[in-house]
Design a protein that fits this description.
single chain; 323 residues; TIM Barrel; 8-stranded parallel beta barrel
Amino acid sequence: MGLTLKNPLIAASSGLTGTLEQIVQLEKSGVGAVVIKSLFEEQISNETNFLLHQNMQQNDNPEASAYIAGYTRENSLQHHLALIRSAKAAVSIPIIASINCFSGEEWVKYASEFEKAGADGIEVNAFILPAERRSTSADIEFRYLDILTEIRKRVKIPVAMKIGSNFTNLVSMVDRLKANGAAAVVLFNRFYEPDIDLETLTFGSAPIYSSQAEIYRTLRWMGILSGKVKNIDLVASTGIHDGEAVVKMLLTGATAVQLCSTLYLNGFSQTDIILKYLGDFMKKKGYHAVTDFRGSMNYAAFPNHAIYERAQFMKYFSGHKNL
């Protein structure tokens, strides 16, 4: 994205990056950049609907309803912009704004305001659930590209797309994101998943923190994409809890990695532990910079691509008699 980081660790967008005090602490802990907590259009919409419902019960004044809707949206936006401005004044590491919207117009509006507030870059946190029976995969993919294209028309700062892995052809999708102006792609978005309480028969949320086992899907696609799609930054996310995971992602071609769940579970001091592991690994292997080994084990580095392409369970275990 053209941003200079002192190391490849980025604090991911979360509640841990939602206040100035926390952002300052994250810089002191050693991270190379911070993605500010996403501005969620859905959250603003839900808050607006709640207030409108109260107004309807008490007043039912259409002018009051219009005022409430406008005020709620503008107040949320201004609070977010104030955080960007104060963070830029308080820390020296790059500050990346993040947006999560469901209507095309709001993506563009928020992105423009983030740039004016001084953000170094924008992360577009996108997930379009393909739940319409008549929508094709091409229809869904075009919506991602359309959002990106419209934002790129209006901002000059670099834009990263944070996406999920559920695309028919992920390599093609990332290549098209690059062609449409994405400076980086973050792999992968970790979405809210529903769960069911069998005692109360009510819906709730599945576990919100990632597990260390979740790195392997990212590892596979990081290796493939970094070997096939050139001239774009690829950032690893989800399941990165320790120094070993960070090194593995760098070996497969990640430009940087995002930390989230591990900071919740282990505290900001986990950054020091990860950086020490990374430094010890580099010293042991004789590397002087991350660029000395980044991508050295990606798809393009091995003539036998089966290690990344193998997908069938029985192929992997064909040599084991008891499995």
